[in-house]
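Quick illustration for those who missed Monday's session on complexes.
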Amino acid sequence: MSKKILDAAGLFKINLISGDVFYTTYNVLNEVKSSFEMEIVNSYLRSGKLKVFEINKEEIENERKTLKSSERLSDADISVILLAKKLDDDSIVYTDDYELQNTLSVLGIKFEGVKVSKIKERRIWVYMCTSCGRYYKTKIEMCPVCGGMVKRRLKKTYSI
Ligand SMILES: [Zn+2]
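Prediction with zinc ion bound:
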C-alpha cells in the first residue's frame, strides 16, 4: 500500500481520496488558519486517520538549496517533499499546488491532484463527532459517547 501524503489542500479534501491513513507534516498543519479547519484536523488526529511528522528547519533549508525554483515553494511544500523521501519509494503526494507538483515530477516522486475532475460523483454522507471522530449514520446533534458536537461529513465518493 502506498503511503498517502497530504499538503494543506489535500487535508481538506481528504474524503475525496480513498484510504484509511494519511500522512502530513507539522509545517502543513501550521498553514491551517481557521478554527473550523483546525477542528476538522483535530478530529482526524484523534481518530488516527492522520499521522503527522516533524521535519526540522535545517532539513528544509538544506533541501531548499538543492531544489530549482525553490523560492516559489513554501516551507510546508518542502516539508512534504522531505516526508515523501523519508517514508518510502511507494509514497504518493496529494496536492493541487502546481509548483509542488512540478518539483515532485522532477524528483521522480509520485503525486496526484486532489480536486474533483469533470467526472460526476456519487457522495455518501455520514455524521461524525467532531470530538472523538465516531461516525453515525443518522443525524444527531450530540455524540452519545463523548458529548461532542456531531456534524455532517462526506464519507465516500463513487464515480458514476
Ligand atoms: Zn464523540
